[in-house]
Amino acid sequence: MITLASGVSYTDVQFIGLPGIIASVVLHGPGGAAIIDPGPTSTLPALGADLAHAGIAMRDVRALLLTHIHLDHAGATGTLVREQPDLRVYVHEKGAPHLVDPTRLLASATRLYGDEMDRLWGDVLPVPAHTLSVLAGGERISAGGRDLDIAYTPGHASHHVSYFSADTGIAFVGDTAGVRLTPGGFNVPPTPPPDIDLEAWAVSLHRIEQWGAGTLFVTHFGPSAPVATHLSEFADRLAIVSRLAAASLARQGSDEDREAWFTDQIRRELRRRMTRYWRKRP
Fold first, then answer.
1. Where residue 275 falls among pLDDT bands split at 50, 70, 90?
2. Do 8 and 168 touch, CB atoms closer than 8 A?
3. In total, how many domains does the chain have?
4. Which domain holds residue 101?
5. Which of 19, 190, 232, 278 has its CA 20 to 30 A from that of 42?
6. Does 240 reside within a domain?
7. Any residues with CB less than 8 A from the CB of 14 and at least 6 apart, and which?
8. In terms of C-beta density within 10 A (0-12 exposed, 13-18 middle, 19 or more buried), how is residue 93 classed?
9. How far apart are CA 90 and CA 74, in angstroms?
């Protein structure tokens, strides 16, 4: 595990055997541990091995803190609760029903991933309702030896929340602040159907900025600073993607033609910005 602050670490869960894709945060103190976004069931062996290497047994984990219920963040929740029935699971009120009954969540994911579901995610089991602590945003909780403020941060998903540790200055923001798999790389807006909301997303970014964090932690992948620069760049990327999506929908032709045009435009934008990045390097 990689240390962010005293009692705050993160681990690369080696999604599909690859590094640098999904990170789970581990808060650990004398009263036990908590995990922010445990990832999918398919990566539990790697998560368990890293915890054990740090001297933390799975039985020491007392709580799971979910930013949202997408399978890459929360797919392992039901499996972990089955193995440890006293686990406490924190989740937004709009996501809670889909943990208890994941039928619709799985149907939606299966439309995207088809026969790859098991390889990518493993089991996705129901979570008993009595294990849930249902959030609305605005709460303060204690987990893993840390006090955490919670904000409702929709945009990427209507049930997304973020967590802020004021004493460490770290904000754990899930997918709200984008996907950046390499330091200094292009920050890609994660915009899966069906419930992205650009107006709500802008409000969420402002809400995160108001925390005054020194570091953002994004699930894909890792810590990022300075925070103001990260958020500003991400807002810019989100505006670009939104503009290109609107332009593609206005084009004549088939959906396949529009998709191909949009993909080509995104590639051009990536090349342009990465060229600028490498030219700036000494």
1. low
2. yes
3. 2
4. 2-226
5. 190
6. no
7. 43, 46
8. middle
9. 11
DSSP string, 198-245: HHHHHHHHHHHHHTT-SEEEETTTEEE--HHHHHHHHHHHHHHHHHHH
Residues 66 and 8 in one domain: yes
Q: Are 149 and 105 in contact (CB under 8 A)?
A: no
Asked whether the predicted pLDDT for residue 177 surpasses 80, the reply is yes
Place of tokens 């939104």: 242
Extract the tokens encoding 95.
């996501």
Q: How confident is the model at residue 229 (pLDDT cuts 50, 70, 90)?
A: very high
Looking up residue 111, the CATH number of its domain turns out to be 3.60.15.10
Q: Say which amino acid occupies 16.
A: I
Question: Distance between the two ends of the chain, CA-based, in angstroms?
Answer: 31
User: CA-CA distance, 70 to 29, in Å (whole number)?
Assistant: 27
218 and 271 fall within a common domain = no
Distance CA 265, CA 152 (A): 32
In this structure, the answer to whether residues 201 and 261 fall within a common structural domain is no
DSSP 58: G
